[in-house]
Amino acid sequence: MTLEDYGWSAARNTELAALTLPDAVPGRILREYRHRYSVFTTAGILDAEVTGTFRHHHPRQEDFPAVGDWVALVPVPGEEKGRIHAVLLRKTAFTRPDPGRTSEMQVMAANVDTVFLVSGLDGDFNLRRIERYLTMAYDSGANPVIVLNKCDLEDDLSTRIAEVEGVAYGVPIHGVSSVSGVGLERIKGYAMPGKTLVCLGSSGAGKSSLVNALLGNTVMEIGEVREDDSRGRHTTTHRELFPLPDGGLIIDTPGIRELQVSGSGENLQAAFEDVEAYLANCRFRDCTHSGEAGCAVEAALESGELDAKRFDAYQRLQKEIAYTERRHSENYAYEERKRGKELGKMYKRIQNEKQNRR
Predict the structure, then answer these.
(1) At what angle do helices 308-357 and 127-140 cross, to 10 degrees?
(2) In this structure, are residues 79 and 41 in contact, taking their beta carbons and an 8 Å threshold?
């Protein structure tokens, strides 16, 4: 396969040349494992790690390479290894707040064109979770497609699709079965040469089964789900990018159990266009929707035009995004102050050592 098969473009050549690294070649991250990377290059698939200079200048986790990233890499002569000097500009990126109490963000996948939001039509089906995934998808910049997997287990697929249409305006929705093959041909149409897909969903939704079906080969381990709640264990423990047989690429990801959302109000608006339409019709711009005269939201809730659970989900996500942004900002400021103090101590130590040597 060529770099173009993996999504390389002429614009990337200009970006790489601007780095002024004469021995560097482009590569795309296929897999990450504890800050070691498998990278596709014209010299083959290389085992790579970032340089010490890169670590020094990029202390934050989100700056490090992620699956799907394009990097500037210098091969090690005579070995199937390389050293990563830079991460090229990300066209899109799926990020989420680090579950730890820091300001760090995790990049789950980069440079994705289309995201398959996979939900199983069993106990995994949850409209509120789909709303959260949609918000994440709009924040990434990729095009969302909702895949209702395990349609062989659902007797009334049209009703389920109608329910999802009520929370995902204008988003393509497909019912598929990774087992029987129903609906697979339609979603294969999103796989085009040089374009990258990613599967996101909870454990047990059938993401790895879907990836195996699209690849026509069992490359990802799959596991059973619990009968009581249809939840699965993490059979996929890493993110990995695969070339598809008929062109295009796909990234499989571990199931997300703690789905915190981040981003901006614009992305929330895109995921909740119906709610935003009612908000815009309130008489007062600063309406709190709790008893004010002329509140279009309360009127819609009373008439049943707006589902109360959907509006509640909107408000929860709005508060969660605001909290995440505030925590990120406060922790970032704290960590920068802490880093400045550490650098100051190091500078004083070096100066003292110089004076002692005189």
Answers:
(1) 50
(2) no
Q: Is the same domain home to 103 and 242?
A: yes
Q: How far is CA 38 from the centre of its chain?
A: 19
Cα–Cα distances (Å) from 33 to 66, 96, 99, 108, 202, in that order, read: 10, 19, 19, 13, 21
Say if residue 219 is in the same domain as residue 114: yes
How confident is residue 148, by pLDDT bands cut at 50, 70 and 90?
A: very high
Place 196 in a pLDDT band, splitting at 50, 70 and 90.
very high
pLDDT digits (tens, 9 = 90+) for 267-293: 677 778 888 888 888 888 888 888 888
Inter-axis angle of helices 308-357 and 296-303, nearest 10: 130
Inside any domain, residue 212: yes
Which residue, 246, 253, 237, is CA-closest to 110?
Answer: 253
Paired strand residues for 198: 115, 251
- Structural domain contains residue 318: no
* Residues of the domain holding 215: 93-252
Number of domains the chain contains: 2
